[in-house]
Amino acid sequence: MWDDRSAFGLGERSTLGHVDIPRLMDGGVDCQVFAVSSSRERTPPYALRTALEMIDVFYRECERNVETIAPVTCYQEIVEAVEGGRVAAMLSIEGADVIEGELSMLRVFHRLGVRMVGLVHSLRNLLADGVTDRRTGGGLSELGVQAVEEMDCLGVIVDVSHINDAGFWDVMEVAKGPVIASHSNCRAVCDHPRNMTDEMIGALAEGGGVMGMNFAPSFVHATDPSVETLVDHIDHVVELVGPDHVGLGSDFDGIPSTPVGLEDVTKMPSITSELLKRDYGEEDIRKILGGNHLRLMKQVIG
Predict the structure, then answer these.
(1) Which pTM value belongs to this model?
(2) Is residue 183 part of a domain?
């Protein structure tokens, strides 16, 4: 996330990181989710303040680049931004430790434009255990259950990436609407605890959810992370549950390295090329490149 002390802003092309507005446009990405988080600690200091500062930076950057990017909070705003030639930018939270145990903060963040919340960021917090704490077998806490219920009421997408297996199944039991695994791959293709089992993928799809492919090399392939092995994960999801429940999550600017051929957001068309090589039809490719996520967003956030 950019701030006033950075050497560059969101509107300037850079060789640092993976994403900026010029490179988003070069890559054909017209809707981008920007994640807000705090330091990844069990009890991060100033978690709430850090999240609010990040949201301030987000809106300041949108104001500085009003002709090329637009903050969005609903499906219609996404459509209008894209039709106007601007990147639609949606806020999410990665790790609900930023609410500091207060459900009222979910309502405040919703008023500030947040439309997706990941319950944990791998480490345990007051809501749930993350994948780092999977040996405990713990899932959602009572506060976590209440948080999922509150998000259902607010029209905020529940994100199960980073949660442990027990927590995932608790969310499936509590959530009334479809949920998202914003950046998680398939454990059957690459055996990593951040990836999802076939049973989890089936349950996510049964509830109308969508999973977004993560570009973190260790989640893609143990020895050969590449565009091709990433698309192997897409193939696996499609074979399991069809083409309506998979999309792209990337985790750009949240991962230190990328698979070969996906060095930054300008390389996104290489995924389209690989899908075409594998005889995916135009309709299914449109679903994978964003249509499935748009359908879920329209249903949950309105």
Answers:
(1) 0.94
(2) yes
